[in-house]
Specification:
Two copies of one chain form a homodimer. Chain A is mainly alpha-helical. Chain A has helices at about 20-45, 50-65, 70-75, 80-90, 115-140, 140-155, 155-165, and strands at about 95-100, 110. Helix content of chain A is about 65%, strand content about 5%. Chain A binds a DNA duplex (30 and 30 nucleotides) through helix 4.
DNA sequence: TAATATATGTCAGTATTATTGACTTTATAA
DNA sequence: TTATAAAGTCAATAATACTGACATATATTA
């Protein structure tokens, strides 16, 4: 269903012609997909009286164990006052542990506690499930394209930061 | 760089094996790409003291000219009280026109005024530019995969609603 | 050592976007 | 005529962000 009309070669892609309507459709796809993508975690978070900001913090603390507060601020692109409220809640509620840095004692390294890992697992289970079924339905070639386009959509600095981390 | 290791065929895609890490990477890609994707319009909207909610309203009123208030509520998935504030501003500011329905006079059909179209163009220019350059950098095969995966990620009802509209 | 810079945390005030609940007006349908 | 539907409004609340000001502890530099 995918390969029978691959007429345009890689070398022609540079001059790919795209109508405004095709581009607008892509924009709407991003909007609707992102909306579905966040809907499962949003439901779970309600049981904890947490919001998306808590989810993001928990996600990145899990993915980059021991990261510093400043690292998290950079990743999220918000002010420390905004993060502080969320982080304080997570720490007070016993989901996140903040350890004084070993070399530089001004720094704080963030870790999920067992309780934090449990919430993270709940949230990412829901999201992984959606991603897995989408990936399987679309096929591995499509997934490769999906990843490639998303990488190109994001800001270059962001792309550099996260691709360098991943290899 | 893309096709030399395409070992998995379409028929095998149903059993595509995906590690948790691969799925989490996909989740982060969505997060970072969406962030970049909204950043250009956000800057423009600041000049008007508008937010993303205004952008979404303007976008969909442009895309579905004459749509009813209830249609817009369905698309956005918010309450009418939430939409009302935004819509009232846009109407008062002269960017949106609300016309009494021809058959059913309870209904209101929404249209962009010239001023509304001008804002829409500014916003979508920025977003189309980003999409176009991502599409071109990734190539047409990748774009096809991108679109397919996004369609599968969104809720089935949403997918049915928008794909039926588009063909 | 003294001055400066950095990392983190906090308080207060404000804005945007969303919610729920209650209610009104106008118009269509039973 | 009564009930339903579409739109609009008011009020109260919540989550997430912002700016600005300031405090504390630790490192770095002059």
């Amino acid at each position: 269903m995918a390969d029978h009309n691959r007429v345009v070669t890689s070398s022609m892609d540079a001059m790919l012609f795209l109508t405004d309507d095709q581009l607008l459709q892509g924009i709407e796809l991003m909007y609707f997909a992102y909306k579905g993508f966040t809907s499962d975690p949003d439901l779970i978070l309600q049981n904890y009286s947490y919001g998306r900001a808590h989810h993001r913090a928990v996600h990145f603390i899990n993915r980059r164990k021991g990261l510093k507060v400043n690292d998290l601020l950079d990743i999220l692109g918000i002010t420390k006052q905004s993060l502080n409220r969320v982080l304080r809640q997570l720490i007070n509620d016993g989901l996140v542990e903040s350890r004084v840095g070993r070399q530089d004692k001004r720094e704080r390294n963030l870790y999920l506690t067992e309780e934090g890992k449990s919430l993270e697992r709940q949230l990412s289970d829901a999201q992984r499930k959606r991603m897995r079924s989408a990936y399987r339905a679309a096929g591995s070639d499509a997934v490769q394209g999906f990843r490639l386009v998303l990488e190109k959509i994001m800001d270059a600095e962001t792309r550099n930061r996260i691709t360098q981390d991943k290899e």
